[in-house]
Please model this.
Amino acid sequence: MSSIPLTPQTAIAAAPHASSATAGVRGLVADWSSDRETFHVSWGKAMMWIFLLSDTFIFSCFLTGYMTVRVSTTVAWPNASEVFALHVAGADVPLLLIAIMTFVLISSSGTMAMAVNCAYRRDRVNAATLMIVTATLGEVFVGMQAFEWSKLILEEGIRPWGNPVGAAQFGSAFFMITGFHGLHVTCGVIYLFVVAFRLLRGDYEKAGNYQIVEIAGLYWHFVDLVWVFIFALFYLW
Amino acid sequence: MEQELKKVDSGHQEHPIKLYLFVWGLLFVLSTLSYLVDYFQFQGLWRWGLIIAFMLMKAGLIVAVFMHMAWERLALVYAILLPPLALLVLVGLMALEGGHTFGTRMLFFH
Model:
């Protein structure tokens, strides 16, 4: 043993800090942090990014599952272009509702970006107004999704276990993916209304910190980002 | 100097409204283009190529400008953007698996 240069004893002697390390839970925290900071942003922003990263993995698992069932089924996949067509002025316009939903969500992302800008300029009335516009657009999106779901369920007979237009897996993939995304939008709307309310009340003015608006914005843009992938991979593919 | 300060303290993200409006417009154009891919019924490699290209451009714009990734420090950028690359392995494996399942289904049920 003694011939090996770095026994535990010598290792501690070589690193003077290690010998003075505290024990127990405090030691655990000290060992992991070591007074070093990796991300030079507020903890709120770093945590929101890490949450969004984990959410990325969840949505990616759904989309990968969708890919797997679509690749492996021997029955023809329903043509999304026809399933999601809207009958307008005597003609079937493909994917019309989905296109409108996409524009609504992108617009809400635009107003959110401007709300963050206003908040950093301490213009809290405009920031809150833009956030309420964002949340309202999000609500419109959820409303259109509810319309889309009821049309699919009631008129076209699409169920999670089967449907009359093609592969049985279509329904389960559709309801799972768009349902989980819709849940995110709904949570985002509530989150935005809460932050907008606190903004108007002057909570952030008092604290002198408007970064919470940017953090809420990160979540909202992420919801838009997920829709970009769903739109391309589920509706257009 | 102003730019330098902003790089160090990336907690504060303030950029010209004009930039946001420009990106907003670009996102509209890209969405319209990807909708037109379906409307004009492009098929085959063109369809997939265009859909993926427009999708990645839109995602890039949202992450870089709206989510301010372009101005964050590299430590944060890499911590967030590199891990999702592991998903490509999952997608690759599941594509192989799905192809295999399809093959055996064709063999035994058709």
Remarks:
- Residues 50 and 140 of chain A are 28 Å apart (CA to CA).
- Chain A touches chain B through 58 residues (CB under 8 Å).
- The first helix of chain A runs from residue 8 to 14.
- Chain A has a mean pLDDT of 88.
